[in-house]
């Protein structure tokens, strides 16, 4: 009886602790669509959007997070810094600055299938 109740308590504790993890932990790596934008408006982080620097928008990753983005069509990669929120279109996981999109070869198409990985 004691073994069963200890197992149940251990399982309940693990379940309770895992539900308290931040949402970013679950969004640390992923794949989906990406688009790019080149506005000069303020970003959600408060800085002015500059299409010439390597930045991106993500729905939940912390501002300042560095993310390695790989274009699945050609294998090219770029490291960007998250400084905005978005994208808000179903199936898209990142909005890249024009410079980042150019580095991975997706400016002319406007969108691409990408995978991303948090690196810091």
From TrEMBL:
This is Endolytic peptidoglycan transglycosylase RlpA. SUPFAM superfamilies: Barwin-like endoglucanases (SSF50685). Residues 1-27 form the signal peptide. It comes from Rhizobium bangladeshense. It comes from the Bacteria. Its EC number is 4.2.2.-. CDD domains: DPBB_RlpA-like. InterPro entries: RlpA (IPR034718), RlpA-like_DPBB (IPR009009), RlpA-like_sf (IPR036908), RplA (IPR012997). It is a lipid-anchor. PROSITE patterns: PROKAR_LIPOPROTEIN. Transmembrane segments: none annotated. It is an enzyme of class 4 (lyase). Keywords: Cell membrane, Cell wall biogenesis/degradation, Lipoprotein, Lyase, Membrane, Palmitate, Signal. It is found in: Cell membrane. Belongs to the RlpA family. The lineage of its organism: Bacteria, Pseudomonadati, Pseudomonadota, Alphaproteobacteria, Hyphomicrobiales. Residues 31-116 form the RlpA-like protein double-psi beta-barrel domain. Its main location: membrane. Lytic transglycosylase with a strong preference for naked glycan strands that lack stem peptides.
């Amino acid at each position: 009886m004691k073994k069963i109740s200890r197992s149940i308590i251990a399982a309940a504790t693990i379940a309770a602790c895992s539900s308290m993890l931040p949402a970013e932990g679950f969004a640390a790596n992923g794949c989906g669509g990406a688009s790019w934008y080149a506005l000069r408006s303020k970003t959600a982080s408060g800085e002015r959007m500059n299409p010439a620097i390597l930045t991106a928008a993500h729905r939940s990753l912390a501002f300042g997070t560095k993310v390695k983005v790989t274009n699945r069509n050609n294998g090219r990669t770029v490291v960007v810094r998250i400084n905005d929120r978005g994208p808000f279109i179903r199936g898209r996981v990142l909005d890249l600055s024009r410079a980042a999109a150019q580095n991975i070869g997706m400016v002319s198409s406007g969108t691409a299938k990408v995978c991303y990985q948090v690196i810091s």
